[in-house]
From TrEMBL, chain A:
Glycans are attached at residues 357, 413. One of its GO terms (biological process) is nervous system development. This is GDNF family receptor alpha-2. Residues 381-392 have a biased composition (Low complexity).
């Protein structure tokens, strides 16, 4: 009886800790009056429920599906549909990187926004939600990795890109997805075909979408003092397959190609939104947000616009997509301007260097409401396949024990607590079990809930 | 349980892990990368069968002589990790299959 009460108490303590550890998505925005934009899949559902909205949306899609978009849009009916839809939730809906049905979301976004733009624009607005959290803990981590403040002779010798590879290899999820893209991108098909580029790009996208950025950024943006390190950094995405091609296309042609694909177009627009150099901020990055710029740079890897380091120079960082401005004709200026956003972009360069050195700028948050929303790392967690393997690799299994406690003949005055089923974690630390007990699973520090659930069980064990 | 603890060093068969440099593995790859090597180790006494006793007895009586036999279960991987990739010192990538164990059993 006492034991059961103690268990209940611990259970509630656990729940409280858990709710403290993961801020509910409802808390922040309501408090500060900032509403996160509705995602376009949801907005589409809302529109479908309304007859006026759904019929106008159908009309607009037919308008845009026509061969000649501009003449179709000149049509009165199409114009009317567009005007009505500007008032609907579809108009300012956004998508999230790596969300479920991302492509569907982007298709909905562009179906409205293509009608709003007058032909080709140089910079397009990003269909993605702004990166609200600055996630400066990643930069703090980076500073630990790069060993700033340590003995300079030691840090000069060490190869940060090699350390990053090690950290990835020691994490099951990172190792699996890294090995997967390497083996696909490295597989020669024939003497004329170096690899299956399409599959390589897909595997790279999976790596950058599903592995936490503390691993992927560290490999992609590690700082280097010698050429061997810089060459390793350049080779991260296996450029001979994913980047280089027989011919270098013109950058504006490549942009046109990219814009025919909803995903590529969106990632490029996101890059332009987050990495466009601005001379009004200290760091030359929009809102001094290095994190957002690095994220949207990495978001282009695995598409036609895949960027990479152009050479293995350790200190001068130049990145570019695989294109040049030769053959631009009278568009030379525009082409150079487009290319310079990669090759001579102070925001991007500063962001890469700051990550490598582990130095983030200390700017006070301009909008506290943004800080209140969940950091993307937390949002991404459920979609990560490693969560499952991580919880099992601890040698734990979850057993629902609501029935067994009732069987132990507890009195009914506790029935309120008892009606709630709770889960117990049984830890396989008993000798004779064949399961492995991992003392530490790499860098997985962002899992407080597991620790909170194990705690009461361990305390119960002690009580026994 | 107490007996098992008393006998020092004889842990039951299970996965162990070790951080090793690829070049240490002696497979001919010159790479500085570190990989996690998981292997199977431990005692298998608990999973002896009548088969093992019988075979041992027959061997003692020289009824089984010529062949190599094993009258004792052995702690071995029953599943392997699919692949691990790494870069060597010449900036070339390699992928090795089934380098590391993922499950162990006394078989």
């Amino acid at each position: 009886m006492i034991l059961a009460n103690a268990f209940c108490l611990l259970f509630f303590l656990d729940e409280t800790l858990r709710s403290l550890a993961s801020p509910s998505s409802l808390q922040g925005p309501e408090l500060h009056g900032w509403r996160p934009p509705v995602d376009c899949v949801r907005a589409n559902e809302l529109c479908a429920a309304e007859s006026n909205c759904s019929s106008r949306y159908r009309t607009l899609r037919q308008c845009l599906a026509g061969r000649d978009r501009n003449t179709m849009l000149a049509n009165k009916e199409c114009q009317a549909a567009l005007e009505v839809l500007q008032e609907s939730p579809l108009y300012d809906c956004r998508c999230k990187r790596g969300m479920k049905k991302e492509l569907q979301c982007l298709q909905i976004y562009w179906s409205i926004h293509l009608g709003l733009t007058e032909g080709e624009e140089f910079y397009e607005a990003s269909p993605y939600e702004p990166v609200t959290s600055r996630l400066s803990d990643i930069f703090r981590l980076a500073s630990i990795f790069s060993g700033t403040g340590a003995d300079p002779s030691v840090s000069a010798k060490s190869n940060h890109c090699l350390d990053a590879a090690k950290a990835c290899n020691l994490n099951d999820n990172c190792k699996k997805l890294r090995s997967s893209y390497i083996s696909i991108c490295n597989r020669e098909i024939s003497s004329t075909e170096r690899c299956n580029r399409r599959k390589c790009h897909k595997a790279l996208r999976q790596f950058f979408d599903r592995v936490p950025s503390e691993y992927t950024y560290r490999m992609l943006f590690c700082s280097c003092q010698d050429q061997a390190c810089a060459e390793r950094r350049r080779q991260t995405i296996l450029p001979s397959c994913s980047y280089e091609d027989k011919e270098k296309p013109n950058c504006l042609e490549l942009r046109t190609l990219c814009r025919t694909d909803h995903l590529c177009r969106s990632r490029l627009a996101d890059f332009h939104t987050n990495c466009r150099a601005s001379y009004r901020t200290l760091t030359t990055c929009p809102a001094d947000n290095y994190q957002a710029c690095l994220g949207s740079y990495a978001g282009m890897i695995g598409f036609d616009m895949t960027p990479n380091y152009v050479d293995s120079s350790p200190t001068s960082i130049v990145v570019s997509p695989w294109c040049s401005c030769r053959g631009s004709g009278n568009m030379e200026e525009e082409c150079e301007k487009f290319l310079r956003d990669f090759t001579e972009n102070p925001c991007l360069r500063n962001a890469i260097q700051a990550f490598g050195n582990g130095t983030d700028v200390n700017v006070s948050p301009k909008s506290p409401s943004f800080q209140a929303t969940q950091p993307p790392r937390v949002e991404k967690t459920p979609s990560l396949p490693d969560d499952l393997s991580d919880s099992t690799s601890l040698g734990t299994s979850v057993i629902t024990t609501c029935t067994s406690v009732q069987e132990q003949g507890l009195k009914t005055n506790n029935s309120k607590e008892l009606s709630m089923c709770f889960t117990e974690l049984t830890t396989n630390i008993i000798p004779g079990s064949k399961k492995v007990i991992k003392p530490n699973s790499g860098l997985n520090r962002a899992r407080p809930t597991a620790a909170f659930t194990v705690l009461p069980v361990l305390m119960l064990r002690l009580a026994l | 349980r107490r007996r098992a603890r008393a006998r020092s060093g004889s842990q039951p068969c299970g996965l162990r892990e070790l951080e090793v440099r690829v070049s240490e593995l002696g497979l001919g790859y010159a790479s500085d990368e570190t990989v996690l090597f998981r292997y199977c180790a431990g005692a298998c006494e608990a999973s002896e069968r009548v088969y093992d006793l019988g075979l041992r007895r027959l061997r003692q009586r020289r009824r089984v002589r010529r062949e190599q036999v094993r009258a004792q279960p052995c702690c071995r991987p029953t599943a392997y990790e699919d692949e691990v990739s790494f870069m060597d010192v010449h900036s070339r990538y390699h992928t090795v299959h089934e380098l590391s164990a993922s499950e162990c059993a006394c078989v």
